Amino acid sequence: MPPVFTDNSYARLPDRFYARLAPTPVSAPKLVKLNTALALQLGLDPAFLASPEGVEILAGNKVAEGSEPIALAYAGHQFGNFVPQLGDGRAVLLGEVVDKTGTRRDIQLKGSGPTPFSRRGDGRAALGPVLREYIISEAMVALGIPTTRSLAAVITGDPVIRENIMPGAVLTRVASSHIRVGTFQFFAARGDKEALKLLADHVIARHYPDAKSYRELYERVIERQANLVARWLGVGFIHGVMNTDNVSIAGETIDYGPCAFMDAYHPETVFSSIDQTGRYAFGKQPQIAGWNLARLGEAMLPLFDEDPDAALAQANESLGNYGAIFGHAYLGVLRRKFGLVTEQESDGELAQSFMKLLADNGTDYTQAFRKLGDGTARGLFEEPAAFDAWDATYRARLAQEPQDEATRRAAMQAVNPVYIPRNHKVEEALAAAIQDDNYEPFEKLLTVLAKPFEERPEFAAYAAPPAGGSANYQTFCGT
Ligand code: AMP
Ligand code: MG
C-alpha cells in the first residue's frame, strides 16, 4: 500500500511560504536502508516502500498520491551573519502523515534536486552525509533525545561532486515539522506581519496547542530549546552548525551536518572544519541557543505588541528566563547522570568539579559516567589521587540519598550510555558502504546504537574511544 498524504497543512499556507515543485528524478535508484520500525510507527507499509514503486517514491522519481511537494522558504543567521533567504535548497517536503496516535509528521526528501532556493548548490546529497545523518539521528532517538528521524536512504546512481566524486543519495527525513527559527526570520525580514501571524498560528495549532498567546508560544519554544540543549550536553553531542536556520521550532535536533559526539571531555571541543572560531563548541551550545532564541524573539516582536517598545520589553522579559530554565534543565540532566534523586545546593559544584577532573585528565566523557555508575571510574584517570579526593565528596553526598546502591546504579545505567556513535566507528561504517558497497558495518553500528544503555560484551569495541583519541577528527558540512 503506497503512502497517502491526506492532510498537508503547510501546503495550505499562502504561496509565499514555499515553492511548489516535484523532486528531480534520478538515474538508478536503489534502496540501501529502510527503517521498518519507523515505517510501521507512521502507519506506512514497509513492504511497499521496499518495492520498486516505493523506491521510486523515496528517490523522488514518482510523486505519491496526495503528495503536494514543496520547498520551504526560510532565512537564517549563519555563523552570526543574517542571510534573508536560504530555504530548502536540496530538500522537498512531500507532505504530512498522521499516524495512529494522531501525531502529524513531515515526510521530506533531502538531496532531491535543485529548487528555487538552491543558490549555487546542486541540490544533491552525497552518500556519506546521508548515512551519517541516518546513524546519528537514529542514535539520538535511542538516547531519548528529541530529533528528526530517518526513514530511508536511497542511492541515486548519479555521482555528486564534492571534495571528491561521491555516490549521490537521498535521505527520507521525518520531522514533527521543518519550521525553523529562520522561518520566522524570513517573514520578519520582509516586514510581512500577516505571514508571521499565520506562521505563529500554524505553529501553535501544530506544536503548542496550550499556548494562549504569541508570547506564550515564544516561551514554550524557549523551554523546549533549553531542554534540548541540556540533553545534548548530557550525552556529549556537538551539533556543529547551530545557525538559526538549523533550529527547529518544535524543539527537535535537526540538520545533522558536521555534528559529532565528544570522546575526551573538553568544553572547547569542536570537530567542524568550517567552525574556525569555535562558535559552536561543545560548551558554547547553551549560550548560542540563547542567542538564537533572541533572534526568534526579534522576529516575533510585531506579534507581541503594536507598540515596539512594549513588544521589546515583553520579549526581553521572556528571554530573560532562558538562563534559569536552561540551568534547571541541565542540573536535572546532571543529577540523573550522577544518580542523585534529591536536590542540594552544592550539586552543581560537585558536577562541575567532576567535569574539571575529566578535562584535566582528558578522560572519555561517556565512559567516565558509565563507570562512575559501575563503581569502576577510578581506572580512567591519569591521576587517580585527584579522582579519589573528588570521589570522597561524591560518596559523602550519596550517603545522604534515600536510594540503596543497587537502585542508584540501575538508574545511572539507564541514563549514562555505554554506546554512542563514536566518530571512528561512524567513519568505518561509511567507508565500507561508500568504497566497498558493504553495508554490514553500517547495519551492525545501527544494531549497537539502538540499545545504547544495554551493555553487550560482543560489542565491547564500540564502547571504547579510538586509540589515539579524536583530536584530529574533522567533520564537514556535507554540502
Ligand atoms: P546547511 O548548512 O546544510 O544547514 O544548509 C544551509 C543552506 O544551504 C540551506 O538553505 C540548504 O538548503 C542549502 N544547501 C546546502 N547544501 C546544498 C546543496 N548541495 N544544494 C543546494 N542547496 C544547498
Ligand atoms: Mg540547514
The total count of strands amounts to 12
Contiguous low-pLDDT stretches (5 residues minimum) are: none
Largest sheet: 6 strands, antiparallel
Please estimate the helix content: 40-55%
Assembly annotation: single chain
The portion of residues forming beta strands comes to 5-15%
* Average predicted confidence as pLDDT: 97
Shape label = globular
> What is the total number of structural domains?
2
**Distance between the amino and carboxyl termini:** 34 Å
> What structural class do you assign from the helix and strand content?
alpha+beta
Helix tally equals: 16
Bound molecules: adenosine monophosphate, magnesium ion
Order of helices and strands: EEHHHEEEEEEHEEHHHEEHHHHHHHHH
* Rg result: 23 Å
